[in-house]
Structures are given as C-alpha cells and as structure tokens.
Amino acid sequence: MLHQFELFDSYFSLDANSGNLYMTDKSGAQAIKLYENNSKEECIRLLLDSNDCQTSKDDIEQFLHQLQELKDEGKLYSPDILPYIKKPNKKDKPLKALCLNVAHSCNLCCNYCFAAAGSFTDEQPLMPLSVGKAAIDFLIESSKGRYNLDVDFFGGEPLLNIDVVKAIVEYARSLEKTHKKHFRFTFTTNGVLLNDDIIEYLNNNMDNVVLSLDGRKEVHDYFRKTPNGKGSYDIVVPKFQKFAKIRGDKEYYIRATFTRHNLDFFSDILHMLSLGFNELSMEPVVTSPDSPEAIRETDLPQIFKQYELLAKEMIERHKNGKPFGFYHYNISLDNGPCLYKLLSGCGTGCEYMAVTPRGELYPCHRFVGDERFLLGNVFEGITNTVMVKEFAENCLLSHKECKQCWAKYFCAGGCAANNFEASGCISGIYTIGCEMFKKRIECALAVKALCAD
Amino acid sequence: MFIKTINKRTLKDSLKHGGCGECQTSCQSACKTSCGVANQPCENPNR
Questions:
Q1: CB of B21 within 8 Å of any CB in chain A?
Q2: pTM over 0.90
C-alpha cells in the first residue's frame, strides 16, 4: 500500500506495508505512483507525455530500474503480511506495566480533566503503602519472561502522596536483584507542590517526568485553576523551569492539552519553547463530544495547519542547531517497534493496568472508576478473566476499519478508551482521533526526512 | 528525477528479533490520552 503526500515543497512516498519512506521530486513521486500498476514501457510513455516531466527517457529508465530493485528487496509495493500473523493472546502478553493512581485527589480543579476534574469522591483518596507494595508484588508475579517493568505514578496529583511514592520506589528497587527485574519509573505532576527537595528526588529517581503546562498564561489559566478559581500558571512555571534546568538531558516532557479554546496551539508551543523547555507534548483534549471544548470534525483543517507549523519550526530549529523534541514526531523508523508490538498496540488490559488507591485493577488509567471494566485487585489478582482475555485479543486485526489504512503500522489501532468512548466498543475507532493521528504521522515523517543528514 | 531512501529497515526485518516485550507500554510516557506506538523504540538487547 502506497501513501504519498506533499509537505514543505517535498514529495514523500511511504510504502506502508514495509514501513519504508522515500523522498523525491514531483516527477519521482509521479513515477512511483505509476509504476505500482503499470509496465515499465507504459510508465515511460505516460511520464514523457506528462507536462511536468523534464526528464529524458534514459533517466526515467534508470529511475524505474531503482524502483524495481527496491521492489525486489521488499521495500516498495510490498504485500501486507498482517493477515498471515497470529493474533496475540494473553499468554503472549504478560503484565509489564502499572499506572499507580496514588492519589485520587487533586490540588487543582482543571475543568477538562478526564480523571474527574479534581473532584474524586473516593472514601480513601490516598494509596496506602500496603496497596503500593501489593501492586509491586502483583507486577513481579505477573510479569514472567519480562525484565523491564514500568511503573507510572499518576492521579489525581501524585505529589499529594509523595512519601508513599518514595517508599514504593524503595520497595521495588529492593526486589530488583532477587527477582531479576528492572523498574523504570515515570511521574506525572501539575507542579503545584514542587519544591527543591522534591525536584531533586524526582530528578534522581524517576526515569521520566511529565509536567502539565498548557502553554500561554491565558490558555493555561483558563482550565488549570486552583480551588479558589485562580490560574496556576504563575505558581508552576518557575518550578518547571527549575526542574528542566536541573534535569539536563534526562527524559522529561512538558505535556499540554489543547481544546477548541486554543485551536491555535502552535502559539502555545512557541511560548513553551520561549520558556526554555525543549521536550514537548501537545495532546488533543479527551472529553464528551457534547462538551463545548471537544474537538469537532470542522476543527481539523485548523489543527492540521498547527501540526504543519510545528513541523516546519522543528526543521528550522534543527538546521539552526537548536533542536527540540515533540513527543508525536519522535518516531523511530530504523529502530522502531517490531511488528508484534505494532500488532498488539498499547497493551491496555493485559500488559498494562491501572491501580486505584484501594488496589482495584482497571485496564488503564482511562478506564478507572468505570465498574464495567473492573478487572480485580492487587491482593486477589485478576477476577474478571473474561475481560482480560477480551483486551488481550484486541489488536490491530480486530479493527476492520484499520485494514486498509496506510497509518495502521504507526498507530496499532489506537487508544482503546478513545475507541470505546467514540464507538461503544474497544475494537471500534475514534474517527477524529484517526485523522489527527494521520496528520501527525505525515508531519513526523517529513521532519524525519528533512532533518536527516 | 531523484529518490532518497530515508530508512533501511523493513517491518518484515523486525520479525527476526521481535516480540521480546521489553519495550515500554505506549501510555507510560507523555501522551496518556492519544496513544500510538510509532515512538516506542525497540529495546531488545539481543537485536
């Protein structure tokens, strides 16, 4: 399956089934398209007849010879091998990651928060250490055959329970050698409670830190408010800058959310860059389609424009020796995920689960609180084996809409929670999300090609 | 008329050493809401 697109006066051809990307001039792109379904002689005739073609017959022949070599190597016009790969099952996908919701409580009241807008009603809002330890034990027991284990501290606001976080990290580390496991920790925070000691702790102990900032002050403060209704921008930005300076080259992300309120979100990205941050993420809001902030189909052209402006900025800053990272454009073409991973997707509900402060297990942080998706708890283990089997078998092959999509080997079927919210089942699709994803991948591929040496 | 090949690996190549499961789960990093797997590098030590 061939996918061709033009960006920044360059022409790109992606052989979607092999994952190989080519950059050409306009007539090169035309030749690639024609040679897919025409003989060599027919291609030469059609190209010579084309008004755009300034190339001699000999040069066209040479070009088509190159295409034939790529085809023979399985790098162009390659067949889809997806139908011949075995569908994964639970046995192939042991648990390897937990999202610990260590605090179902928050010190901000962000209107768009998918985790309850800071208004959890749990009787036990903070995870006790006993639950945290049981979660680590459960992860070790369930992760047969896996060495790297990921644990993500999330909420609510995890800094509200930082002492338990520290104790969980210490407990997990103490078990690494005995059980031959390696823990990697991620911490997501709104930054309100960051101080020098916590910054030092997070920097030393977390493999990745995700800091929530939406961009320009007026955009950030519109949603991200303290309980007294004031914006949190002035509280968190100096703390995030301090953290980023100390963090250096170690992994962190400034993570923003965009809504219909800031469809010009490229300006927010520029603002974050001006604050000195260079590892950025900008995510479409997750909310009910009825919400005034929800992304609508009519917003897509403006969103696509923002993604293009962002890609152009990345290319220019790369050329000027001042590169920055954008999460969705950091794709790896030569060292990316294997086909098995691409088939399995994000792992929700089998490789990845979320734990509530009481120890309940859900398929991921997005399903927390929806009793229909309760899988069990960290003390007794999985009790809803039917649901886990359903999630384990949910894969790229389950989405009938994806079969003919050129982006399926970048997306792997998308987010199960988004798919469920949009279609009523985890094997459905979220169409608006698909369109944004495809645009991001086109931009990512262009950035990759135009920044290559 | 020119063509520049951007990457060498084919998805089929990835089957040779794939499936070890040592890579990150997609939502562990920065997105949390709009996962794809394209930016999850392979972490197979024997690759």
A1: yes
A2: yes
Residues pairing with A258 in the sheet: A284
Under 8 Å CB pairs connecting chains A and B tally to: 217
> In sequence order, what DSSP letters do the residues of A99-154 get, joined into one string?
EEEEES--S---TT-TTTTT----SS-B--HHHHHHHHHHHHHH-TT--EEEEEEE
Distance between CA atoms of residues A235 and A95, nearest Å: 38
Residue A37, SS3?
helix
Q: Does B6 touch chain A (CB under 8 A)?
A: yes
Spatial CA neighbour of A388 closest among A375, A369, A405, A370: A375
10-residue averages of pLDDT along chain A (453 residues)? 97 97 96 96 92 83 97 96 79 92 93 68 88 98 96 95 98 98 96 98 97 97 94 98 96 95 98 97 90 95 98 97 94 88 89 96 95 97 96 90 93 92 93 96 97 84
Contacts of A212 (CB under 8 A, 6+ apart): A188, A189, A190, A191, A224, A236, A255, A256, A257
Nearest CA in chain A to B26: A346
> Side-chain half-sphere of A164: how many Cα atoms within 13 Å?
24
Q: Which of B6, B12, B40 sits opposite A333 (nearest CB)?
A: B6
Q: What's the gap between Cα A144 and its chain centre?
A: 26
